[in-house]
Predict the structure.
Amino acid sequence: MRIQERFFTLKGDIFGAIIASIIAFPQAVAFGEASGMGASAGILGAIILSFIVGVLGCNMALISGPTGPTAIIAALIVSGANGNFAEIIPILVMAAIFQIIISLTEIPRMIKYVPYPVISGFLTGIGLIIIILQLPPLLGGETYSSTLKALAAYPQIFSNINGEALIIGGATLFILFFTPKFITRFIPVQLLALLLMTGIAYYFGLNIDTVTGAKLHFENIHIPNFTYETITTNLPIALTLAFIATSEGLLTGIIMDSLTKVKHNSKRLVKAMGIGNLFCALTGSMFGTAATMRSVAAVKAGAATRAACIASSLILLIVLLKFNSFISQIPICVLAAILIKIGYDILDLKVLKILKYAPKDDLYVLIAVLILTVFYNLIFALGIGIVMAALLYAKRVADNTNIKANVYNPSAYTSFETKVEKESHYKIRILHIDGQFFFGSITQIVSHFDEMLETEYIILNYSSNSKLDMSAIFALEDIIVRLKSQKIKLYLVITNKEVYEQIKSLEIISQTGLNCLFNDETDAINKAIEETHLEKLI
């Protein structure tokens, strides 16, 4: 039986690796070109990092390689060094070493405490940066290293549009946004657009820029030349790259935890990424991290273990060895279109549907992080966002000093609640949230729902007068979806009228139904008892 299980696991890993590689190929080429390091650096970065994370990392399909945020930082590094690899390599090596150092601290375990508005503003900012920077090459112009330079050049770019590039790039965008789902079930839309539009451009011999080529250079190991000036001058940008790559990788790990129901070792993941990026730096390849889109696609295709990472790496290596001539014919405007779609996908658009329900404090943090990310500095934006969120939270707590800090409080049970749970054989469970349901408490609250294995009904009593912030709204969504997948019914008891109306207006409540929202705990308990066909206890 074990042999059969291992066969099916390996089969799922291989199939997942194929799907992830199909997605990774156009992205790696695009990110390599966007960074200024070249298409080969992008693909080699995906090959090396995914392989090493597979060998040294957690036993899950964390497909790794260059991503949007790391490509943006890499572009800044390449621009600052004027494309001189002798100056680029030491910075990449420093960033990799910082990642390894970070893995030895408690920092990797702290990512879950970063407030949602900070993450949302940062990701949306990254998406906007990608779109702003890729619009010029989409129109046949040159690629810029910063949003301000790109925006300043827009008048000139729009007055000198390459018509052929615009047609090919525009057609690529049309394919990416409007290809029917029944087609994308058989081939990922990015690969479809890449193959089709490259073939058309080549067939008609269009006058548009193409990728210069992608060749293996494993024999050229780059030995970094460290000087005091190199270290002191480039320390901030190296720390930025290390922090961005680490943060994105850990966020991917959290998403994979939710998807696979297996918890990853955050320290081990960061260490594996650091070692992988060190090898990438020494071979002149792109810095990267665990990529969410590729990892999720691999898991949904059946991948379950680290073997998927290794297999994906080997598949990309074969592609690079066998399809060099094709890669050199890929139009830059096609890659720009692919990156614009990636940038659009990174935008946190789901936050728009809850903006009117979110506290103004959250909006201030989100907007500040967004603006600073796009127009100033990514690491500064994250730092300011976290500081702002912490200060605003302190103010919120100070304004509600009568609210207890403990989130889940078994001592608050009444004798009647204990009787209900006991006599229902714990099919009915009652939880009290005595403090605020906000970004600082959601991790502890959500963790309790993993312990309700025999439960059929959970009555969640939220007695605070404070409205749910953005993090809490999405946490509530996660709780509802998680319990629904476990076939556990959730009854929400909200005593405060304003909070009751806020939750009632949320779209996610449609999944439970308004009949599962109560003002009084007794009514909720009565309904649960009635549903479980137990003797009336009240």
